[in-house]
Amino acid sequence: MRRRRNQKQYVVIGLGRFGTSVAQTLYQMGCEVLAIDSDEEKVQAVASMVTHAVQADATDEAAMHALGVRNFDVAIVSIGDVQASIMTTLVLKAMGVRQTVAKALSELHGRVLEKVGADKVIYPERDMGVRVAHNLISGNIVDYVELVPGYSIVEVLARGSLVHKTLRELDLRARYGISVMAIKRGNDIIVAPGANDAVEPGDKLVAIGQDEMLDRLQHMNEDDQ
Hints:
It is built from nine helices and 13 strands. Strand 2 (32-37), helix 2 and strand 3 form a beta-alpha-beta unit.
């Protein structure tokens, strides 16, 4: 399984279509993923797609302690039952899980989840599972949209070796086949920037290209060029 620098551990609770999509995508991106559901059939269905898959009642704090859930960096609560999702979020926060992301079925459900301590609330109609997974794993990724398999548009927060250079100096098209479609700078946006446009700290680059090449762009602030 592929490992990344500063890799985090994720626990995904609730293995419906959304939770399964998040868990599978995180695993494919090289993360360690523990998947939990009370339904044994769902657990078996996802077992080959993640690091570990376990049948358990996520509202049972003792069971969650036994699984070591408190040691995970991020917990994603994707339970379809409103009461169970709220109780699970409460349990996770009481255990001291660093970050809890919860799926809401409605605006009211989302407000309750925020009240009980969810760090981030996701609405499935606005956030597909794959998109959420990419946002979670890449701290410098602001947004992600898959166009077709293998090609995407990303909005990357410029930092490290991306800043204080012009697009000509970065030469992303020649080096990686990546096209910068726009530069967002505060409330302004530079559409179709030219080769002499410079990237400043805090800028967001809207880029299109192959996923493998976009992955390199994400880590330009870490990797030697």
